[in-house]
Specification:
Helix content is about 15%, strand content about 40%. It is of the alpha+beta class. It has a single domain, classed as SH3 type barrels (Roll), CATH 2.30.30. The two termini are about 25 Å apart. About 20% of the residues are buried.
């Protein structure tokens, strides 16, 4: 008998500070090009480092550097939780 592990996907905008995940896909094709140019590639691990006092933007670590994103941009990135 095989036990299949259910993979739970979430948006990057749903992470709490200090949490991380692995990029699996994007929900907006136009935005995905911009994000991939900034290093947000499928298979890359991202960690949420900071949230601005008013909740937007957020700061993440991806591909070895810090990146600031609007929550609307982060919401288009689907992650597999780590």
């Amino acid at each position: 008998m095989r036990h299949s592990k259910k993979i739970q996907l979430m948006n990057l905008s749903e992470l709490e500070i200090g949490e991380s995940g692995t990029i699996t896909a994007f929900t907006d094709q136009h935005m995905s090009i911009k994000l991939m140019e900034m290093g947000c590639l499928p298979g890359e691990e991202v960690r949420l480092d900071q949230i601005a006092p008013l909740g937007d933007p957020i700061a993440i670590t991806v591909s070895g550097y810090k990146l600031s994103l609007r929550k609307t941009e982060a919401a288009t990135i689907l992650l597999k939780s780590n």
